[in-house]
């Protein structure tokens, strides 16, 4: 490939960018730290910046990294590859899928995507540009070793530079320390910097103001804050999960928000749940979801119980007619709190591959009021993974848990728990992650279905639920729609 085939392409300058891209392109210090809230376009802007350098400069070596390989492949790697294809540059590059590398032969540029689980492996490498995505996951040692590798030969006017990007969720983490270094430049951003953010996601972020001050500061204002009130603790396992005698599935519906499907292995002897993320995807129609479920759930497992959000009885019936043993999850007064209590009676074991589920679980926290007092209820933000776990555990296992510990009682209450009001789904980016400015909104190109996450939360109501003590077992039969019961007492 001739160099001119890329460098003479001026259309790259016309790509849709945000001020975050422009500020990074004009940065002057050796280390540039992008600290921003959700939907601020920082990751998308970094990907655009690296692509611009990859197709315009010569004789350069690039490193884009995350702490773990599964997280890397699902985020920065996928984002860059997708943009290269969208912009028409991918065909001019040599892509090694096993090594996760890209080579631009005409320009002699080489891009490496890597996980930094062992920074010692990179002590002999040299790079011109490094991007550490989700930098809070790295250690200070990781940062120092990579910074020392920023020593590849370059030319005047194109200095080597290191970029970091993250949400300000760890006030005592490595990034806070980097920001104090004299050779560091900070670029702060929020959703207000991203004119491509959807109205739905803006409403969610602005709704955090009334729910939790720390979440409002971190994800809406892009400022460091100390989190308190985290609900779940995950244990990570690198080796394959042990075989369990019992498996169940949990399903949280979405469209603008993700559909989340989990497979859960149950070990009652050791009070352990082994969780596998089978699906975490936005923009799926009912047919898309059924097709994906047929792919990820084996024929022999179709008889295992799947517990789904009872706010969507029609979707549950469609999936049942497809041959899956699906049930509406139990809901009633304080079912969210009771479900959390049920889950927390187990040790929760996950894997690095469960990237988005792990992120949801680690950030799931209780509300903290303006006085700093932790409340009982969780914040309604990035709760898709926790919901998909809570539904099956509460519905399928609470009777056994109560039998094991007769002194343990469920919470009771008549108050309704509501999600913040959000506008109807509109065209625009469809993920809880940072939105790609150039992405064509799924809701505008496909038949948008009702999104249960955009409805009033029904966890405090009996709609679609199975009465206490009658948790379904085995294959269910189609049932007439049940009347909602506001007075159902889950502690009876």
Explain the overall architecture:
With 492 residues, this protein is α/β, with parallel strands linked by helices. It folds into 2 domains: 4-8 and 19-195, Rossmann fold (3-Layer(aba) Sandwich), CATH 3.40.50; 234-454, Nucleotidyltransferase, domain 5. It has 15 helices and 17 strands. It has helices spanning 4-7, 19-25, 42-54, 69-74, 76-87, 140-148, 174-178, 199-207, 213-220, 286-296, 313-321, 335-343, 355-363, 384-404, 442-445, and strands spanning 31-36, 61-66, 94-96, 101-104, 109-115, 129-133, 161-166, 184-189, 234-236, 246-252, 259-267, 272-281, 306-308, 326-328, 347-350, 366-368, 374-378. The strands form 3 sheets. Strands 3-4-5-2-6-7-1-8 form an 8-stranded mixed sheet. Helix 11 links the parallel strand 13 (306-308) and strand 14. Helix 2 (19-25) packs across helix 3 and helix 3 crosses helix 5 (76-87). The longest helix has 21 residues, at 384-404. The protein is globular and about 70 Å long. 46% of the residues are buried.
Concise account of the structure shown:
It contains 15 helices and 17 strands. It is of the alpha/beta class. Residues 1-13, 414-450, 454-473 and 477-492 have low confidence and may be disordered.
């Amino acid at each position: 490939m001739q160099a001119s085939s890329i460098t003479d392409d001026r259309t790259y300058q016309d790509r849709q960018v945000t001020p975050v891209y422009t500020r990074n392109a004009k940065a002057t210090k050796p280390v540039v730290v992008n600290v921003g809230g959700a939907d601020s376009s920082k990751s998308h802007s970094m990907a655009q910046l690296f692509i611009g350098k990859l197709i315009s400069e010569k004789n350069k070596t690039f490193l884009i990294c995350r702490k773990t390989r599964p997280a890397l492949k699902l985020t920065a790697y996928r984002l860059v590859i997708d943009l290269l294809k969208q912009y028409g540059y991918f065909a001019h590059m040599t892509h090694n899928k096993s090594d996760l590398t890209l080579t631009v032969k005409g320009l002699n540029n080489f891009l490496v995507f890597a996980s930094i689980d062992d920074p010692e492996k990179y002590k002999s490498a040299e790079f011109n540009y490094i991007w550490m995505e989700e930098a809070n996951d790295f250690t200070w040692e990781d940062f120092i070793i990579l910074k020392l590798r920023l020593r590849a030969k370059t030319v005047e006017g194109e200095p080597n530079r290191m970029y970091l990007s993250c949400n300000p969720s760890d006030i005592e983490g490595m990034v806070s320390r980097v920001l104090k270094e004299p050779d560091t430049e900070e670029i702060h951003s929020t959703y207000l910097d991203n004119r491509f953010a959807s109205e739905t996601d803006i409403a969610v972020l602005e709704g955090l103001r009334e729910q939790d001050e720390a979440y409002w500061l971190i994800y809406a204002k892009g400022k460091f804050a100390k989190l308190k009130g985290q609900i779940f603790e995950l244990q990570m396992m690198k080796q394959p999960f042990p075989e369990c005698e019992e498996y169940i599935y949990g399903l949280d519906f979405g469209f603008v928000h993700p559909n989340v499907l989990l497979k859960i292995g149950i070990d009652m002897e050791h009070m352990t749940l082994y969780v596998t993320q089978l699906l975490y995807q936005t923009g799926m129609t009912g047919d898309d979801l059924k097709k994906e479920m047929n792919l990820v759930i084996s024929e022999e497992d179709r008889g295992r119980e799947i517990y789904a959000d009872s706010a969507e009885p029609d979707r549950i019936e469609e999936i049942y007619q497809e041959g899956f043993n699906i049930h509406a999850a139990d809901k009633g007064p304080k079912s969210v709190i009771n479900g959390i209590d049920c889950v927390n009676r187990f040790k929760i074991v996950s894997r690095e591959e469960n990237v988005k589920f792990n992120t949801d679980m680690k950030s799931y926290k209780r509300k903290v009021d303006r006085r700093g007092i932790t409340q009982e209820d969780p914040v309604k933000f990035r709760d898709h993974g926790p919901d998909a776990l809570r539904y099956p555990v509460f519905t399928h296992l609470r009777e056994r848990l109560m039998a094991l510990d007769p002194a343990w009682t469920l919470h009771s209450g008549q108050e309704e728990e509501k999600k913040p009001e959000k506008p109807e789904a509109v065209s625009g980016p469809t993920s809880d992650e940072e939105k790609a400015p150039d992405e064509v909104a799924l809701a505008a190109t496909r038949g948008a279905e009702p999104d249960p996450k955009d409805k009033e939360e029904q966890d405090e109501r009996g709609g679609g639920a199975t009465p206490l003590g009658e948790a379904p077992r085995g294959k269910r039969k189609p049932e007439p729609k049940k009347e909602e019961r506001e007075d159902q007492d889950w502690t009876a």
